[in-house]
Amino acid sequence: MACEPLKVGAMGLNEQVDELLELAWQDERFTITAVADEDTSRAQATARRYECTASEDYRRLIIQNQLDVLFVGAPVHSCIDYLRAALQKKFHILKTVPAAVNFEQCAELVALARKEGVHFVPVLPGRFEPMQERLRGQLSCPEAESWHLITAVCHIPAGPMPAERRWLQDPQLAGGGVLMWNAYDLLDEIILSFGLPQQVYALLTNQAPDRQQRMSLTEDTAIVSLRFSDTLVAQICASRTLGPARRHLRIHGTERVLTLTREEFLVCDHRGNVLEHVIFGPERIHGLKDLLENFVCAVLQPDGCKLWPGPQADLKTMAVVESAYLSARTAMPEAPPRLLELARAGTAGLW
């Protein structure tokens, strides 16, 4: 007998949640039940599109519905209590990144999800996009050479911040600035490919006119150095800056240089000769489709289908981000493995 469709709700609507809802609407394994957003008109328009109920009250959404899956686009500071309540009601959650404002909160939510037997998954479609699959294939080749340097750039066009998003400048509400909100997926790609770095050193700054103001605002620019081993290091530059958006990841080896962007994958030798060049189409939804497919299979077939890459990967990425912010405050390198050890000690039996 066919299983009943999974009941889906959405808490906080944004572009990525809209895409998830559209994918769910087209999939007979889901039925969209309710949506909530502080913008009443947006919630009502979405509810009309998917023939479900609408609300501006996140609490009402959680209390009045027994959902199987909850898509969350609301910023964490506005919904953390509702996230906990949803997990306690055994809702599986897909949360747009950042999934928490800091490592401690992320570890708490991951542990709570495991305790309740549900999934808490950050929405990182880049993990499933074709260019990442090709990169992992290159790095896992038996004849692959030694890699010694990783460089990454994430430039976001600067512009005036709308009044309703000014909270992004508050570290207590946003958790961080450009590193957390713009370069998180880039860091995640590096950590998935090369594992957890042993040390992190970071310099952060913004355009505030004096040091006191800079200390109370989220960063506009971050330079982060990672040491994976005595022979492999990485440097990430993330900034809101004038000019066009720019994002690339470059990996230097003993024989080749790999360059990865959203649009292409390039392999060159040290003389600049092109060994491989693959151009990807503009279709952004591919990775999101595969992420949702992996998620729903893990929900419906928990014994036969596992989440990839799993909550440990999410904690590793958040540990690196947290270490970068600690390093910026202490002016010393910080160790992500130490944060993971502390989290394991604090949630014994849930790992």
Quickly list its features.
13 helices; 8-stranded mixed beta sheet; 14 strands; 25% strand; 351 residues; Dihydrodipicolinate Reductase, domain 2; alpha/beta; 6-stranded parallel beta sheet; 38% helix
Walk me through what this model shows:
It is built from 13 helices and 14 strands. With 351 residues, it is an alpha/beta fold. The chain has a domain of 185 residues: Dihydrodipicolinate Reductase, domain 2 (2-Layer Sandwich), CATH 3.30.360. The strands form two sheets. The protein has an eight-stranded mixed sheet with strand order 8-9-10-7-11-12-13-14. Helix 12 crosses helix 13.
Write the layout of secondary structure elements.
Layout: E1 6-11, H1 15-25, E2 30-36, H2 40-50, E3 53-55, H3 58-64, E4 69-72, H4 80-88, E5 92-96, H5 103-116, E6 120-123, H6 130-140, E7 147-157, H7 171-174, H8 178-181, H9 184-194, E8 199-205, H10 211-215, E9 221-227, E10 233-241, E11 246-253, E12 256-260, E13 264-269, E14 274-279, H11 285-300, H12 311-330, H13 336-346
Parallel strand pairs: 1-2, 1-4, 2-3, 4-5, 5-6, 7-10
Antiparallel strand pairs: 7-11, 8-9, 9-10, 11-12, 12-13, 13-14
Helix pairs in contact: 4-5, 5-12, 9-12, 12-13
Strand arrangement in the largest pleated sheet: 8-9-10-7-11-12-13-14
The CATH homology group name of the domain at 143-281 and 306-351: Dihydrodipicolinate Reductase, domain 2
CATH fold title of the domain at 143-281 and 306-351 = Dihydrodipicolinate Reductase, domain 2
Q: How many helical stretches? A: 13
Oligomer: single chain
Content of β-strand: 25-35%
Whole-number mean pLDDT:
92
- Distance between the first and last residues' Cα: 34 Å
Number of strands: 14
Would you identify the regions where 5 or more consecutive residues have pLDDT less than 50? none
**General form:** globular
Order of helices and strands: EHEHEHEHEHEHEHHHEHEEEEEEHHH
- Integer-rounded radius of gyration: 21 Å
Helix amount: 25-40%
CATH architecture descriptor name of the domain at 143-281 and 306-351: 2-Layer Sandwich
Return the CATH class of the domain at 143-281 and 306-351. Alpha Beta
Alpha-beta content class: alpha/beta
